[in-house]
Amino acid sequence: QGQEKLSCNPKKENGTHVVLCELGNPMKAGAQITVDMELSVSGLEDMGDAITFHLQLRSKNSPSPSPSKASVTVTVPVEAEAEMELRGNSLPATVVLPTSWHGVKGSRRLEDHGIRVEHVYELHNKGPGTVSGVTLSLTVPHLLGDHVLLYLLELGTEGGMNCSHHPALNPAQV
């Protein structure tokens, strides 16, 4: 009847985090209670797909020959939430080649292959959670039929990321 707030005390037992809540002392015979608990757990990024809670009801009745230890295990799925955003730009933003321009075959000079354009992509985590193990696949059209559309010169990353690239990167070693 009615609602009461429980007095709970967190502590550590054998390397495990334990929360002890006193439900009633003394509790009347035949009493039935319902307990709603809300637990806030941080640092779940590396916990896997689920977290398991072991709930146990202990009675301290002194006349009892062996204290009651009814227990139940509850497994809750862990779902991380993070919103990723990909931003990109080209430097310069616009390039116009004259219609009379032709590349010089066999040249190792960059300017004989066209105008340099740098494409920069930034992957941002807008949260609320952290992310790891993200893979970004970026496909760049470098051929149009048998003709070179974009000559891919180099590929680089910042911020401790690993990068693998297509073997057609800088094939003429310009």
TrEMBL record:
It is found in: Membrane. The keyword Nucleotide-binding does not apply. Pfam families: Integrin_A_Ig_2, Integrin_A_Ig_3. Residues 85-173 form the Integrin alpha third immunoglobulin-like domain. InterPro entries: Integrin_alpha_Ig-like_2, Integrin_alpha_Ig-like_3, Integrin_dom_sf. It comes from the Eukaryota. One of its GO terms (biological process) is angiogenesis. GO terms for cellular component: external side of plasma membrane; integrin complex. Residues 3-77 form the Integrin alpha second immunoglobulin-like domain. Keywords: Glycoprotein, Integrin, Membrane. It is a single-pass type I membrane protein. PANTHER family: INTEGRIN ALPHA, INTEGRIN ALPHA-IIB. This is ITA2B protein.
